[in-house]
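Hi all, posting the design record for the shared folder.

TITLE: backbone redesign
STEP: 1 of 1
STRUCTURE INPUT:
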């Protein structure tokens, strides 16, 4: 939102937002902390292709780790996804 405003995108100021919109744009401190941690592990690149490769390297490392855990009987992640899905579905009907 801030980046878009700074780039000249004509958006309503946050002072005009409804309560629902404020909730939609709220960012939890843990999300910010986790994102900063992620970015610190991605690294930097001189071009988009190299940057994409850095992101994909982390994604594939996580994905194959997750697959190995599931093959060994750990369904923690599957349960978390299932619970989130139920929550998202309930939220979409509000």
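Okay, here is what came back for every position:
SEQUENCE:
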């Amino acid at each position: 939102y801030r980046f878009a405003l700074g780039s000249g995108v004509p958006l309503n100021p946050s002072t005009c937002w409804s309560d629902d919109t404020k909730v939609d744009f709220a960012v939890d401190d843990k999300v910010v902390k986790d994102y900063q941690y992620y970015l610190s592990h991605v690294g930097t690149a001189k071009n988009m292709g190299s940057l994409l490769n850095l992101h994909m390297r982390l994604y594939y490392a996580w994905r194959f780790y997750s697959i190995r855990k599931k093959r060994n009987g750990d369904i923690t992640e599957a349960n978390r996804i299932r619970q989130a899905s139920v929550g998202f579905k309930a939220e979409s009907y509000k």
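COMMENT: The chain has a mean pLDDT of 92.
Let me know if anyone wants the other runs.
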